Structure prediction request, 385 residues.
Amino acid sequence: MSETELQNRGRKRRVLVVTGTRAEFGLLRPVMKAVLDREELELLVVAAGAHLVQPALTFKEVKAEFEVADSIPMQTAGRVGRQEDVEALGKGIGRFGRSFSLLEPDWVVVLGDRIEAFAAASAASIGGWALAHIHGGDRAEGVADEAMRHAMTKLSNLHLPATEGSAERIRRMGEDPERVLVVGSPAIDGLGVIPALGDGAYAELGSPEVVVLMHPCGREDDVEAEEMRKVLKSVEGKRVLVMHPNLDPGRRGIVQAIKEVEGREGVVVREHLVRDVFVGLLKRVGVEGGALVGNSSSGLIECSAIGCPSVDVGDRQSGRERCAGLTVHVESGDGVGDALRELCSCVDKGTAHPYGDGTAGVAIARMLAEIDPTVEGFTRKRCVY
Prediction:
């Protein structure tokens, strides 16, 4: 509806932002803050899925920064696998539908490709709520979530891709070019104001030369465990901080491999770091001549923006745009040692990257304010093949 109609109804345009994981919350924070900064918008935050699972329980981080309008339990602690994800997804769709009916959003905003976002997108599309999708059109072909990202594109009414390459893929899927608006990645927003970790905080984490962050790719636990063992073997003799993986199928295998090295000299293990600490750590590691090793998108997006070298292991991020000179790709953990030596020998570590200038949150909030999702026919999907 128009701004006048909203005023006549006595309320602002309601923007409901769904966050389901620790990593995606870090990307959505600048979007949420930018929505709060606009007088014509009202922010509704719904925390779901992995945020509510022990032991990390990152729901507390969301609640510490934003008023949470609702929480949507999906996964069950200790139950990880493809069938478990199917059950969690079904549970989430129904629960999101009830939440949207109660909160009456004008926009539902999701990011990425995880089952929490897919559940919310499904409920919004089927229930007739306008859906905006951030980071659609990306390629990360080594995980099952890849299919969900593109399915969410077809469910969405407004597309907010991070790069022109992603935008072009969305257009080729038959989406209206006028609704495909390149905003950059909110992962870049605010990085410049986060300081590198000081000596004390850096020492508490073991003064690492290497940070290891490997997520599962949906393979069997024994396969994921063996790949993680190869990575950890490749960094033996260095000071290493090892981060726990996300909740995707295969997590148990990676955690098992981590437990096998936990307590060894030079190895520090952490379940989770809040985003500002994680970014500050990467900045300090980059200054110290170290690197991030693993298969997280942060190795290609955040690292490229702050100048921290990274080693991308395996095919989880296959197809994702990256910064030449700062990232070395290896097919397996066996190649990590050689990749680290290659990075150390790089003279030119330029920080040019395709993910925008750090103003994605502001741009997204402006578009949510300016585009009226309640006009006749807005939520009706039309392909423009």
Remarks:
- The chain has two domains: 3-188+357-370, 191-344.
- The domain at 3-188+357-370 is CATH 3.40.50.2000 (Rossmann fold).
- The chain has a mean pLDDT of 91.
